[in-house]
Amino acid sequence: MLRLTRRAFSSTPSPRVAVVGSGPGGFYTAKYLLRDSKNVHVTILDRWPTPFGLVRYGVAPDHPEVKSVQDDFEEVATSERFSYAGHVFVGHPADAPSHTGPVVPLNDLMNLYDAVVVATGCDLARKLDLPGAELEGVVNARAFVGWYNAEPTFSHLQLPDVSDQLRSVIIGHGNVALDCARLLAAPSSHLDATDIHSTAFEALQRLPSKRLIHVVGRRGATQAAFTTKEVRELTELENAALVIDPAELEAGDTEASIEEGKARPLKRKRKFLDQASRRPGGDLRPGRQSRRARLRRSGWVKRGPTGIVGSNVADARETAAAVLEDLAASGVAGYGEGTSWADWRRIDGVEKANARNGAPRAKFSDVEGMLDAAKSS
């Protein structure tokens, strides 16, 4: 049961900060708040009973090395000045999903805490402004990634029925686009020992063995947002071939692109793409605000959906430093709790116990299952 109480000001204040969102932006902010102050108390609130946001619901299941940042976040949660309030929706009641627990308007939260940091990520998917975008078979990457990562919002997504050959086009050439391409192309052996949701795993394996996947972007290789590591992984899949048209690479070589491409990381990426384009292959052709409390932002909600998980470190440090400056003469407010960190540990234990052979966990894709597990002994 969520309890939010207003507390009286104290002559020896121990300021309380609410961080909305438990992804990298939220946890790194909490880390530096707790590290750089000896008396601040931090409560992370999240709409799901489970923590970690993007790391749990956005990182590809075959990237366990990226998910390892959870160990750092687990360390943050051991602080006596840390608490977790899961299954709590912060915002207008009309916007709350049907499966949520307690709903706390942002204005109320700002009355109850000395500072509030919003680190909710970029939750709204961008619409494809093209004719036919509403047709069956057009799936937003936000929904597709959430589906294979067991985010409850997208648990009912279904892939279109394909009998002979899968022909798909992925619009955009960032790391998420290549994640989607890799999971569509991957054989079952590649995903066996991952935490991909079982429903998604089975649906992907039912796709025909012949799969033609195009990755397209509006600009050339120099401006492509994917990393060399991500594109290299496409060349390491069994029974799959990465094909890059040399003419398409050259088409993006404008005077400005050539100058921009002199930076070392871009030179390294272009060298790899040039090498890949010369290999024989198959048919793939990838081309500060102030109210009652100081309200801050961290992570994607602050800077947009750019960068990798580690990009949140410097961002969170900056936000934490600004919050501590704001709190120099603040009072004390109480905090509430939906599902606690102890509840998350019970959910974590059940997911690990239910894992397929070789997989790290079997993630719940429904809130009811999470809450039942939270009550387990």
Keywords:
alpha/beta; Rossmann fold; two-stranded parallel ribbon; 17 helices; 10 strands; globular; adrenodoxin-NADP(+) reductase; flavoprotein
Topology overview:
Layout: E1 16-20, H1 24-36, E2 41-45, H2 54-57, H3 64-67, H4 69-76, E3 82-85, E4 89-90, E5 103-104, H5 106-112, E6 115-118, H6 141-148, E7 166-171, H7 175-185, H8 188-191, H9 198-205, E8 211-216, H10 228-234, H11 246-251, H12 255-260, H13 264-277, E9 289-290, E10 294-297, H14 300-303, H15 312-326, H16 341-353, H17 367-374
Parallel strand pairs: 1-2, 1-6, 2-3, 4-5, 6-10, 7-8
Antiparallel strand pairs: 9-10
Helix pairs in contact: 1-15, 7-10, 16-17
Keywords: FAD, Flavoprotein, NADP, Oxidoreductase
Pfam families: Pyr_redox_2
Binding site for FAD: 54, 90, 300
Q: What string gives the helices and strands in order?
A: EHEHHHEEEHEHEHHHEHHHHEEHHHH
Overall average residue pLDDT: 87
Output the strand order for the largest sheet. Answer: 3-2-1-6-10-9
Amount of helix: 25-40%
**Count of individual helical segments:** 17
- CATH architecture group name of the domain at 16-123 and 289-374: 3-Layer(aba) Sandwich
Cofactor: FAD
Family: Belongs to the ferredoxin--NADP reductase type 1 family.
GO molecular function, one term: oxidoreductase activity
Domain FAD/NAD(P)-binding: 16-186
Question: Would you give an account of this structure?
Answer:
The chain is of the alpha/beta class. The chain has a domain at 16-123 and 289-374: NAD(P)-binding Rossmann-like Domain (Rossmann fold). It is 37% helix and 11% strand. The protein has 17 helices and ten strands. It has helices at 24-36, 54-57, 64-67, 69-76, 106-112, 141-148, 175-185, 188-191, 198-205, 228-234, 246-251, 255-260, 264-277, 300-303, 312-326, 341-353, 367-374, and strands at 16-20, 41-45, 82-85, 89-90, 103-104, 115-118, 166-171, 211-216, 289-290, 294-297. The strands form three sheets. Strands 3-2-1-6-10-9 form a six-stranded mixed beta sheet, with helices on one face. A two-stranded parallel ribbon has the order 4-5. The protein has a two-stranded parallel sheet with strand order 7-8. Helix 1 crosses helix 15. The longest helix is centred in the last third of the chain and has 15 residues, at 312-326. The chain is globular, with a radius of gyration of 23 Å. Mean pLDDT is 87; it is low at 5-12, 282-286 and 329-336.
